[in-house]
Amino acid sequence: MTFTQLLPIIGMLKKELIVTFIIRKHKRFSLLPVFLVLGLCSVAAQVKKNNSAVTAPTERKPNVIFILSDDQGTLDVNSYGAKDLQTPNLDALAREGVRFTQFYAAAPVCSPSRAAILTGKVPQRAGLAGNAAPNRAPEGMPTEQFTLAEMMKQAGYVTGHIGKWHLGYQSASMPNGQGFDYSFGHLVGCIDNYSHFFYWDGPNKHDLWRNGEEVWYDGQFFPDLLNQEMTSFIEQNKAKPFFVYWALNYPHYPMQGTEKWRTTYAHLPRPRRDYAAAVSTMDEKIGEILKKLTDLKLREHTIIVFMSDHGHSTEERAMGGAGYAGPFRGAKGSLFEAGLRVPAMISWPGHVPQNQTRHQLSVGTDWFPTIAELCGIPVPKDQLDGKSLVPVITKNSASPHQRFHWLFDKQWVVRQGDWKLLGNPVDKSNKGKLTPADSLFLVNLRQDSTEMKNTAAQHPEMVTKLKALHQEWIKTIPAK
Ligand SMILES: [Ca+2]
Q: pTM for the full model?
């Protein structure tokens, strides 16, 4: 055996073992052989290090920040079409990456859309088909679900949840029970941003938590608290790969923008001015964290994903609605386009193309396998409904989905190519009347993305085909 062949073996030996061995072997030992062997180990380690630098570079995994906005309208980013509000930071993010024009939430309300993002599965398979509520079953996403956070944690990431949760209230179903090392935020659907109370359904309840413990920050603006938390999490973990799920509670009601933005939009009619102030307040907060990443020289090492959890709200609590969806029909709670189609983008300078737009059908379930692929993490064997968007993002390949299914209460959708069949549609935007004859509502989105005209009567064979696909699919969905 030559000296070179011996080096890796010596390199593997622990120095302490060698010292112990020498001490045992030479009861009256001198330090000379110890230093000789330690010196040899050092040389071996150096040779090994140099070799590995050439043959097997161990590049650090990228950080991932997943930014989720709440109830943001389909086109409420300047680069998507809104003209009366300002989103310079989201637009900069879009320019530094790829933005999607046909990106869909897997559900038209908060909890199931979030469950789909965090599991890569349609909400029914993720075990949470409707909104979670503290006193209503199901109380949250089942803990046996394997979450995005758990996947990242297993791969060596430090994981953080900062913001809204809305996926469970029991200690097991809170963020720390679902794969997050650190958690700060609120558990129910919405809070007042200064008192951190949930006021919209009795009993009124204080709702601010850090790692499962209730915390009080009386009078402090919640978006400021989130940015302090984001900053300290990033600074503390800047030497490690980290994953942060930053679930902003904006522009969801109560739509509390800062004075700067309320003044900026004072000329707009209500409630658009309140909503616009909320959107721009959020955009500004996102900009602060993007700047922080640049200051820490982490921007090129950080994948940033952004999407809204579903379309804008037309609820009374949102003053009847102020989101902008342009020609699209529907809103939060509806499976028409404006309930599901959301602004979405991904940015990773140096790795993902910049300033590009993709029109391929993509869904919230897809981030799970997409992030796994970008971070070099094997996707779990669990059956996912999501598919990796990496070929779409990097090569502009066709959508990985030949077809996708939605189910929300009695509403359902089959989307295949440009065809979309809605069952029992509900129009929360009240753009037009629906009659019993519209219980099966067929559109070809390429020909008419407004969904104002039901073409089922003109294409009975397409209706039959898509309805049969829905009936087949629904058999694969677990019973409640
Ligand atoms: Ca929401």
A: 0.88
